[in-house]
Structure formats: structure tokens, C-alpha cells
Amino acid sequence: MTKKTGNQGRKPSVLDNFKPLLIDVAVPLGSYYLLKDAFGMSTFAALAWSSVVPAVRTVWSLVKERRTNGLAGLILVVNVVSLLLGFLSGDPRLMLAKDSGVSSTVAIGILVSVRLGKPMMTAGMKPFLVKGDADKEAAWQRLASGAAAGSAAFRSKERAFSVVWGLALLAECVARVVGAYTVPVDTMVWLGTVFLIAAMALAFVVSGGLAVEPMERMLAAETEAGRTQRPTPAVAA
Fold it and tell me: What are the residues whose beta carbons fall under 8 Å from the beta carbon of 96, sequence distance 6 or more?
């Protein structure tokens, strides 16, 4: 019998599944607020320094792995757009409207990823469905790769999940722009946050019923099928 060494055969933990989100999203966003609020940096400086990690991750993926790191690339683009929009100042309504630039960049990035066949929001949904279970991880790979009977339906729901989030954020962007030029400035300062929370809540509810719940059922069925097809170990005489 060959002894497994290192991490070979190790059951993936919840941390393993969340690692892409932690590195590509949580680190740059967390560093932005830390640099801005705790260290007193300007918005421009905090955005610039918090772009280092996603920039390195994006370049590393392109050079070493010959692929695009979608999450890191999206965060980098958002930061760059925010830096460019940061030069717009003076008109308070324009300052309110420019906040929609972040939502629109994220929304367009998500929708483009669906068009390219690599739904970006999958990275955020998968850990909640797989939960670090090796059997579920294997079932996911079979469904996502086309090797399972329900692959077509599974991938359709996977795309639907990202489409819902992309459209919700795009709608939030439009609402911010319209509100910036029609609602009193003092009201719009807090109403913009309400728009974002409402868009996210709506996306959670719609994507949950439309995509997450059906995918969870398909994943459970494929996981059970994989377990029943697993060869039974021979019993020593």
C-alpha cells in the first residue's frame, strides 16, 4: 500500500474553499478600510496600496498559470475605476453619482464572465454548497465538467446565479445615478446605502430560489450517486 504524504488525500477544509475569496476579495477590501480609517491615509492612497495584492495575483495568474484570475482582476479594475473617478470633484451630485461606477464595474464584470463561460459569482457560492466535504467537491467537479448526467442543468443554474447578481448590481447602479440627480443631496447620502442593501437582499432571495436551492439538490443527488458507485473494499479472509 502506498502511503499518502503531505496534503495528498487530505479532506479540503472550509478555509481551503474560502481561500480564493479571502485572498482576492477580503484582503484588498480589508486593507483599504484599514489604511483609510486606522492609518488615516487618503482615499486615493488607500485605494492605490490596496490594489497591490489583486495586481500581483492577476499578473501571477497570467504569467505562471496562463489564465485570468477573475476575482483578483475584478477587484483591481474596481480600484482603478475608483481611482479615476476620485479625480471628479466639486459637484456634490456628481460625487454621489460616481459611486455607481463601482457597482456598474462589478456588474459588467460578472455579466461578461457569464458570457465567457466562467461565472464569477461561483467562487462565492461554491463554499456554501460544498462545505469542505471531499465527496461534495468531487460531485461538484463532475457536474461542472460535464461528466455527470445533470451537468447541463447544473451549469445553467450556475450561470443564472451570476446573472441575477450582475443584474441586481446594475439596477442598483442605475438607481444611484437617477437618485443623485432627482433626490435631495442630504437624502441621497444615506439612500445610496439603502439601494445597495436592497439590491443585495433581492439578489440573495432571487438567486437562492432560482439557482442555489436547485444546485444544492443536484449536488446532493450526485454526491449520493458517487458514494453508491464507489467500489466496496475487499474483506480479508
Answer: 176, 179, 180, 185, 188, 189, 192
Helix pair 52-63, 43-50: axis angle to 10 deg: 30
Q: Give me the residue label for grid cell 505562471.
A: 64
Q: How many CA atoms lie within 13 A of 179 on its CB side?
A: 22
To the question of pTM greater than 0.90 for the whole model, the response is no
Task: Supply the pLDDT for residue 215.
Answer: 94
Q: Of the given ranges (42-56, 86-100, 171-185, 191-205), which has the lowest mean pLDDT?
A: 86-100
Contact 166, 110 (CB under 8 A): yes
CB 21 within 8 A of CB 54: no
Tell me the C-alpha distance between 164 and 185, whole Å.
Answer: 29
**What angle in degrees, to the nearest 10, is found between the helix axes of 151-182 and 185-207?**
170
Burial readout 86-108 (b: 16 or more C-beta within 10 A, e: otherwise)? eeeeeeeeebbbbbbbbbbbbbb
Distance, in Å, from the CA atom of 60 to the CA atom of 182, rounded to the nearest integer, reads 44
Burial environment of residue 144 by CB neighbours within 10 A (0 to 12, 13 to 18, 19 or more): middle
What counts of helices (H) and strands (E) characterise the chain? Answer: 12, 0
DSSP classification of residue 148? S
